[in-house]
Amino acid sequence: MDISIIGSGYVGLVTGACFADVGHNVICVDNDEGKIKTLQAGRIPIYEPGLEEIVHRNVSAHRLHFSSSIREGVEKSQIVFIAVPTPPQSNGDVDLSFIEKVSREIADILTDYRVIVDKSTVPVKTGERVAETIKRYNRHGAKFDVVSNPEFLREGCAIRDLMHPDRIVIGAQSQHAVDLMKKVYEPFMAPVLVTGINSAELIKHAANSFLALKISYINAISAICDASGADVEKVADGIGMDRRIGRQFLNAGIGYGGSCFPKDVAAFIHISEQLGVPFTLLKEVQRINAGQKERFLKLIRDTLWVLREKKIAVWGLTFKPNTDDVRSSVAIELVDAMLREGAHVSVYDPKGMEKARELKAIADAKFAASALEAVDGAEALVIATEWNEFANVDFAAVKQRMTTPIVFDGRNLLNPETMGELGFHYHSIGRASVIPR
Ligand code: UDX
After folding, report:
1. Per the residue annotation, which of 18, 28, 225, 260 is the catalytic one?
2. Closest Cα to atom 29, ligand 1: which residue?
3. What is the mean pLDDT of each run of 10 residues along the chain (437 residues)?
4. Between helices 126-137 and 197-228, what is the axis angle to 10°?
5. pTM of the entire predicted model
6. What's the CA-to-centroid distance between 212 and ligand 1, angstroms?
7. What is the Å distance from ligand 1's center to 42 Cα?
8. pLDDT of residue 152
9. 220 within 8 A of 287, measured Cβ to Cβ
10. How far apart are the C-alpha atoms of 409 and 296, rounded to whole Å?
11. Distance from CA of residue 154 to its chain's centroid?
């Protein structure tokens, strides 16, 4: 099928590349001409495992094109996906101005039938607004259908998530649009759920909020484990073996971050308030998430006594492993907090260094060239992101380089017993600390 994707950010680019890879003709559009030029030159502006290869393969096969012209995208395709940012506003409301602008631009171009698909995460009832706007601004009386098709991919495993989705949600009002959308997704051989537009929009916020709630649930349990001497990993295993609960997203840590969960939970709270049915449970989810970082900082302070002038190494800056994304990363917030308290912080991340260097909040940190360099002379090591690389470091060498071998593992990446045997003072989340005699 001929498909265009308006917005070549994270979701737009990965979706476009995967659509091309299953045989569709795809034009990825963006109003950032620099980005389009970069893509046309064969360079990928984001880090996502496997993406570069797929983009190159499909550009060579002439199935994937890049353009800065919405007109070209809309004219040359049967289905137009909108994948533009929907950033949060300070009151938790979602800024829909990019969606509104693209809707007007599409309306201006539309002369005959197209399916306009919203892939961006939007508040329930946005599709109705998009349809109204296109109708209002279209001078040709062109026929069109609006569809909501939320995206559930995770950064770091986006290609796998897109190629093998648990489900495809198609929110539509016309059978014709549903049939066309099913054709788009046919090669993926995934279960399809057809709903109304409002339900599809709600599914995205409800799913992400539930996952955030699951993380906050286990994080609240981790505090009870710390207070009672139980082990949160065992508790998570025990409850996760119940298939009704499941083990995934029950990893306790310093809290969730990233460009989705914090934003989507805040937006869902706002949406529910605007609809007159406040979803107060989600406020507690937010409170627990913020509290988890504070609990971790308190553990560091209680152990080191004073942070001022202390040399602290931090491994991990991205909001999770296998990405270069440092947006809303709890790791960055931790570095910021420790710098404010006067610590000398030396940081290292396998992929996030470049983007982290641009952040003013941690400009005073020392950016080390390797995990080992970061711990040189350090009085404590904080693990803030669970990169595989960190689990495989030579900890005997780490210990030798550190002034005092104290580790705060904010992601329960390492084995407490092994760390104890190596002579580390080892602290983690919801598990007993190991202090060698
Ligand atoms: C999320 C959703 O999973 C995805 O379906 C949606 O499309 C976009 O938002 P993403 O933000 O890429 O994806 O990452 P995810 O793997 O969900 O992790 C989000 C945050 O939760 C990370 O900070 C991660 O460290 C944290 N997390 C995740 C935990 O703290 N514990 C867990 O058990 C799982």
Report:
1. 260
2. 256
3. 97 97 98 96 93 97 98 97 94 92 97 97 96 96 97 94 97 97 98 98 98 98 98 98 98 96 95 97 98 98 97 98 95 98 98 97 98 98 98 97 98 97 97 92
4. 150
5. 0.95
6. 8
7. 29
8. 95
9. no
10. 9
11. 6
Using CA atoms of 232, 237, 240, 246 in order, give the dihedral in degrees to the nearest 10: 110
Q: Which amino acid, one-letter code, is at 275?
A: L
Instruction: Check if the beta carbon of residue 380 is closer than 8 Å to that of residue 300.
Output: yes
SS3 for the chain is CEEEEECCCHHHHHHHHHHHHCCCEEEEECCCHHHHHHHHCCCCCCCCCCHHHHHHHHHHCCCEEEECCHHHHHHCCCEEEECCCCCECCCCCECCHHHHHHHHHHHHHCCCCEEEEECCCCCCCHHHHHHHHHHHHCCCCCCEEEEECCCCCCCCCHHHHHHCCCCEEEECCCHHHHHHHHHHHHHHCCCEEEECHHHHHHHHHHHHHHHHHHHHHHHHHHHHHHHHCCCHHHHHHHHHCCCCCCCCCCCCCCCCCCCCHHHHHHHHHHHHHHCCCCCCHHHHHHHHHHHHHHHHHHHHHHHHCCCCCCEEEEECCCCCCCCCCCCCCHHHHHHHHHHHCCCEEEEECCCCHHHHHCCHHHCCCEECCCHHHHCCCCCEEEECCCCHHHHCCCHHHHHHHCCCCEEEECCCCCCHHHHHHCCCEEECCCCCCECCC
Q: Which residues contact 402 (CB under 8 A, 6 or more apart)?
A: 313, 375, 377, 378, 379, 381
Which residue's CA lies nearest to atom 28 of ligand 1?
A: 249
Q: What is the pLDDT of residue 90?
A: 84
Distance of CA 84 to the CA centre of its chain: 15
C-beta separation of 149 from 200 below 8 A: yes
Contact yes or no for 17/39 (Cβ under 8 A): no
Report CA(155)–ligand 1 centroid distance (Å): 8
Q: Residue 358 in contact with residue 332, Cβ under 8 Å? A: no
For 18, the token pair is 């995967």
Look up 260 and say whether it is catalytic. Answer: yes
| Structural domains of the chain in order of their starting residue, each with its CATH number | 2-195 (3.40.50.720), 204-437 (3.40.50.720)
Does any ligand 1 atom lie closer than 6 A to the CB of residue 169?
A: no
Token pair listed for 118: 């919203």
**Best CA proximity match to 118, nearest among 194, 5, 30, 210:** 5
pLDDT, residue 92, reads: 79
